[in-house]
Design goal:
By secondary structure, the protein is α+β, with helices and mostly antiparallel strands. The protein has one domain: so0334 like fold. The protein contains 2 helices and 2 strands; from the N terminus they run αβαβ. A two-stranded parallel ribbon has the order 1-2. β1, α2 and β2 form a beta-alpha-beta unit. The longest helix has 22 residues. The protein is elongated, with a radius of gyration of 20 Å.
Length: 80
């Protein structure tokens, strides 16, 4: 019976380690679309940003330690 309790604790410990490590791996993706975007949008695929400058500001102000990818959709970008 005692062996079963030790295995349960090991399982819980490993699950916590995986959960903590997975937080640093989560990547953020921002979408920029000069035609259909708006800088008041959150930068999602459905609601993209309109300027690269706003995407840079969001990346610099991000408290998430994971990587951020900016996906630039086709279009003409005159300002930053």
């Amino acid at each position: 019976m005692r062996q079963r309790g030790i295995l349960n604790y090991r399982f819980i410990f490993m699950a916590l380690v995986v959960a903590i490590l997975a937080q640093g791996v989560i990547a953020e993706v921002l979408y920029v679309n000069s035609t259909n975007g708006n800088d008041t949008n959150p930068g999602t695929r459905e609601k993209p940003l309109s300027t690269l400058g706003k995407a840079v500001i969001l990346v610099n102000n991000n408290s998430n330690s994971g990587p951020t990818t900016i996906k630039i959709l086709p279009g003409i970008y005159n300002q930053c």
